[in-house]
Amino acid sequence: MLNIALFGPPGAGKGTQAKKIVEKYNLAHLSTGDMIRKEIAEGTELGKIAEEIIARGELLSDEFVVRLIENSMAQHRGVNGFLFDGFPRTVAQAEILDRMLEKEGTPLKGLICIHVPFEELKRRMLERAKIEGRADDNEEAIAKRFREYNDKTVHVANHYKKKGVHIDVEGNCPVEEVFNAITKAIEEMK
């Protein structure tokens, strides 16, 4: 089973690349962002809680996110693997994911980390705010999201470097070039 995590700062292009990876490798796409936006759009209790936290630029609790992932994994049996998009975001989540996958006998094959300079990320997010109307893509929330990323999320990469499954990809180039680099990395990990 091919289990991959797509990793990088907000605005790195994870969602764009995830769609292409899922199509090429027939993986179940587990996007915490999509799951959370669905909860918000449906006005569920979880959605209301998530909306408040996200609007402040903060991360949702590990328990909240893990519950979403577990539910989604249970609904996708018989797939070639999972593409985790936006998960794990903390070392605690990474450890939980490792245990979940080891229990299934299908560990994470790779954490693909997309690198993009901060100014380009900020530009992309502000542009996305205009196009998609995302409330979490404003100057204040963006600054807070990057602080959260640097304080909590960036450590996930070190967790997977120690396990020998971390792969760096340059993300400040055309979408197809990024995808080709990711595809090459996936082929090498299979």
From TrEMBL:
Pfam families: ADK. GO terms for cellular component: cytoplasm. It is an enzyme of class 2 (transferase). Its main location: cytoplasm. AMP binds at T32, R37, E58, L59, L60, G86, F87, P88, R89, Q93, R134, R145. CDD domains: ADK. Consists of three domains, a large central CORE domain and two small peripheral domains, NMPbind and LID, which undergo movements during catalysis. The LID domain closes over the site of phosphoryl transfer upon ATP binding. Assembling and dissambling the active center during each catalytic cycle provides an effective means to prevent ATP hydrolysis. This is Adenylate kinase. The lineage of its organism: Bacteria, Pseudomonadati, Bacteroidota, Bacteroidia, Bacteroidales.
